[in-house]
Write a structure and sequence with these properties.
Length: about 220
């Protein structure tokens, strides 16, 4: 018991390390959520369009990234792109990989929501003289967004958890901070239990929001 308390006190001395890790995780997650959502909506609109070649290209692109591990994608961005002359720092590489994978998943969510809007809504909008852009902006997207919001929030939670893979490229996120602390406090169970609590505290507000939206 005394040893446990000593280790707990020792971990408490590393709170700046944990705070730094939490800050990086929050920054990566925020970038992935904002940029991934914008790109995902654009891809989703294209995925649900009447243009078959466009649907095929977007579908193939998203399937490739949705069907491969996030860690592999992070490695490709960080280690392979420099060979093509594109030098990226670890934070930029991590943010880019997470944004891309988030956009791919969100695109399918958005496309499904658009397809769920009754066809009669588009026909009514067209008969009212609305252009295709106006139909999408004023009729389709408002209805689709209400249906897909719970799924979107769930994807945001997955993004926060997936962000832990960036520790593999040396980025000092919450998971990496745990590895640093465990080198000095040899109690992996205790250290990573606290790291897990940190992720839970970040994700729980999103989980709670998703549940409320599903009920509504």
């Amino acid at each position: 018991m005394n040893l446990f308390l000593e280790q707990l006190v020792g971990i408490a001395q590393y709170y700046p390390v944990l705070l730094k890790g939490i800050g990086i995780t929050l920054a990566l997650s925020a970038i992935g959520i904002v940029a991934g959502s914008m790109a995902g909506f654009l891809l989703g609109i294209g995925r649900a369009s009447a243009n078959k070649p466009l649907r095929f290209v977007i579908g193939a692109y998203t399937d490739i990234f949705r069907g491969t591990p996030v860690l592999v994608q992070v490695f490709v961005v960080f280690f392979i792109l420099p060979e093509a002359g594109i030098e990226l720092g670890s934070f930029t590489a991590g943010a880019l990989a997470l944004t891309n994978i988030t956009a791919c998943f969100i695109s399918e969510i958005v496309a499904s929501g658009i397809r769920a809007v009754p066809r009669g809504q588009l026909e009514a909008a067209a008969s009212a003289g609305l252009t295709r852009f106006q139909q999408m902006r004023l009729v389709v997207l408002p209805q689709a967004t209400r249906m897909i919001v719970p799924s979107l929030v769930g994807q945001f939670v997955l993004l926060v958890k997936d962000s832990s893979v960036v520790s593999a490229i040396g980025l000092f996120d919450l998971t990496r901070s745990g590895w640093v602390i465990v080198q000095n406090i040899p109690n992996g169970l205790l250290v990573f239990a606290l790291v897990g609590i940190g992720y839970f505290l970040i994700c729980y507000p999103l989980i709670h929001l998703s549940r409320r939206l599903e009920k509504r």
